[in-house]
Amino acid sequence: METSIIVVTQAFGVHETEVDITNQSIALNYAPSGKTPYSLHRVVRSWSQNYAGLALLHRLVAAVAAGEMDRDEAQQTLADIRHKPKPFPGWLTTVAAGLFSATFVVFIGGGVVGAGVAFLSMMLMMTVVDLLGRARIPEFFSIMAGGFIATMIALVLYTLDVDLAPSLVVAGGIMLLLPSGRFVSAVQDAINGFPVTAAGRFVSAFLVFAALIAGIVAATVFASMLGVRELDLAQEPFADYPVWLLGILVFAAAIWNSIFEQSEWRLLLPTAVVSLAGFAVYVGAEFIGVGSRLTPAIAAVAIGALGRYVALRMGAPQLVVAVPGILFLLPGLTIFRSMYKIAMDTGEMMEGVIGLFNAAVVIMAIAAGVVLGDTIARPFTTAFQANERRRIGRR
């Protein structure tokens, strides 16, 4: 984002600018030598998923950099992008969220009943989160409510002896609430030399993470007060499926998540293919015994590199392809199991804290892997980007 702003300002003759971006604001400082400096500050009051708009904005920046547009044309194009309808209606994104949750539950070892419960609870949860967002409730509390609903439904059905694994259902339910995109952007900004921007995004991401944890803890404590029996977390889930079936689940999950993130129609299949390729790398790294902590990071590097190449070929930023592609790597089950131990068993509190720390480390490793993959792929996409700019300039 910072690079895009600098490219646009320089294309229009505004040099010597500094940009700082957080999750809620953009600050642009213009300090020409020997002249009066200027500062512009824009606060973002609300936001929503719109990867299609992000891809259109990427193409606009490319066109400006190629000299195809003057400032008036660029402003009009930006206005058109802001008012362009999203590719998918709201009800379809809610259904896609439910399908993703159900697919992920099956992927990590859940049964058909658990997948069905995850599907319904996810749709309810996302509806509530959306309504709270429309009512201008702070994001912290809406995410907390989502985590509470996902956990409470699973635990109540568990105490009613419904045949499901509640920990798997909750893990599938919280995946779309994890601030994976923000972690990737924050790590990318930190590595590329934008510490203020990275710090703001890290704070925002960790607040979402804390809200999710608070919702899980509140639900487990409340369920205990209602007499819900404690879970047996000693039993590890096991997905006894062939690799090809797991690959299909990963492919489908990437499509559902891309729809939820409002990606473009033409990016759905390429995103799923990149995710499937990352899963193949994951299986290969696991086969040679790399280790449970390093394996997701290696797969994330592959997804980051392929995501950059595919995204640029399709006229979109890497994030649009990479973020939906990495969700199957995130340790949602570890997060729930750790928080359950912290909330319900003081004797295992330290083990829960360690598990939560390990989950955070894995998430950061995955985010860093995506950024590393993007960096590795740059020499292979530089020529392509130059050709693309010349092609735009000739139009």
UniProtKB/TrEMBL annotation:
The chain crosses the membrane at residues 140-158, 164-184, 205-229, 241-260, 267-288, 294-312, 319-340, 352-372. Coiled coil: none annotated. Residues 2-222 form the Threonine/serine exporter-like N-terminal domain. Keywords: Cell membrane, Membrane, Transmembrane, Transmembrane helix. It is a multi-pass membrane protein. The keyword S-adenosyl-L-methionine does not apply. Belongs to the ThrE exporter (TC 2.A.79) family. This is Threonine/serine exporter ThrE family protein. It comes from Citricoccus parietis.
